[in-house]
Amino acid sequence: LDALPLTSSEKVDRRALPPPASAGPSRSDPPRDALERGLAAAMAGLLGVSSIGREDDFFAAGGHSLLAARLVLVVRETHGAAVPLVAFFARPTVAGLAELVRATVGATRGRAD
Fold first, then answer.
1. Averaged over 58-65, what is the pLDDT?
2. Exposed e or buried b for every residue in 78-95, given b needs 16+ CB within 10 A?
3. d(C-alpha 51, C-alpha 91), whole Å
4. What pLDDT is stored for residue 18 in this prediction?
5. Which residues pair with 12 in a beta bridge?
6. d(Cα 24, Cα 15) in Å, to the nearest integer?
7. Cα–Cα distance between 111 and 113 in angstroms, integer?
8. Distance (Å, rounded) from C-alpha 49 to C-alpha 23?
């Protein structure tokens, strides 16, 4: 946009903004396995998009910190993996989150043995 649309009170008119460019289907590779497919579905559901690829950035696709916290909670509930939120901020893709889940679950199993 050349300029943000404004209301009569000089505030940003959010309803007049175009939808984010990332709201369409993913352009990156699809998820590779069941874990990645589940994580991609969870991300897409939270973001309100039809699909998300394994290397699509959660935040570039419209995510924010509160949605990230919800995603980490969903991962804990569905996979039993307590992925630190800060770790997801460093690796905000399906592929990165899948690696974090695998590492967290592996570390937990290693302590239980």
1. 93
2. ebebebeeebbeebbbbb
3. 18
4. 79
5. 6
6. 19
7. 6
8. 6
CA neighbours within 13 Å on the CB side: how many for 27?
7
Please count the other Cβ atoms lying within 10 Å of the Cβ belonging to residue 67: 17
CB distance 91 to 53 below 8 Å: no
- Please determine, for residue 38, whether its predicted confidence score (pLDDT) is greater than 80: yes
- What is the Cα–Cα distance from 46 to 92, expressed in whole angstroms? 14
User: Model confidence over 71-111: pLDDT tens digits?
Assistant: 999 999 999 999 999 999 999 999 999 999 999 987 766 55
SS3 100: helix
What is residue 90's three-state secondary structure? helix
Q: What pTM did the predictor assign?
A: 0.73
